[in-house]
Amino acid sequence: MATIMTTKTIVILLLALTLTLGGGCAGIEDALNLRKPTASLEGLKFDKISSDAATLLFDVAIENPYPAPLPLLNIDYNLTSLGKPLLAGEADLQRTVPARAKETVTLPAKISYSDLAKAFREVRPGTIIPYRADMGLSVDAAALGTLRLPMKKESELTVPAIPNLSDVDWKKLLLDKPIK
Q1: Where are the domains positioned within the chain?
Q2: Banded model confidence at residue 9, pLDDT cuts 50, 70, 90
């Protein structure tokens, strides 16, 4: 009986030593090769432009290290420039990333020119503005539960020109469609 107690004590001490020297849970995850999914903001660009707003596209690269598909739950975003808020929101994502795959998801978000003008009185088409994006992608990581993968990026963005309605050929537009 004394030998069994000694063996148990040695195993417990070795496990405690491994956890202490191995960095706790992170050390165990590494030892068991339990990698977490990763996400990074790869780019931000303007897409559709109207007379009152523009659509921004966030390109988010997601890597799924798991042997099963990874459900994406939602993404939250906060875009600032020189400390001034530009855009914030959250969107539900009804997608999955295939097992052991890397995929880029594009998230559209609208920004009105009035919001942009409130933040920057001197903004004109062609102006390059610095931005900081703080985002979080929530995923359902099965055994680990819901994880929020934080992302940050600082870069620059060129403000597009607002479409000029005086440049539209109204006669051509009206003649192209039959009037009913």
Answers
A1: 1-34, 35-163
A2: low
**Using alpha carbons only, what angle is made at residue 134 by residues 148 and 132, rounded to the nearest 5 degrees?**
165
> How many whole angstroms separate alpha carbon 180 and alpha carbon 178?
6
User: Which residue do the tokens 């192209």 mark?
Assistant: 176
In this structure, which topology does domain 35-163 adopt according to CATH?
Immunoglobulin-like (2.60.40)
* pLDDT digits 0-9 by tens, 135-169: 999 999 987 899 999 999 999 988 777 666 555 55
The token duo for 19 is 């956890």
Identify whether the C-beta of residue 152 lies closer than 8 Å to the C-beta of residue 132: yes
